[in-house]
Amino acid sequence: MYLDFIKKFFFISLFFISTSIVADDYRAGKHYQILAEPIATRDSEKIEVIEFFWFGCGHCYSLENQLNSWEKKLSSNVDFWRSPITWNEMAKTHAKLFYAAEFFKKPEIISNTFVSIHANQRMMTSDKELKPFFASFGVSEDKYQSLFNSFAMKNKIRRAETFGLKYEVRGVPAFVVNGKYKVSASRDVGTNELLDVVDYLINLERK
Question: Domains (ranges, CATH) in the chain?
Answer without folding.
Answer: 2-206 (3.40.30.10)
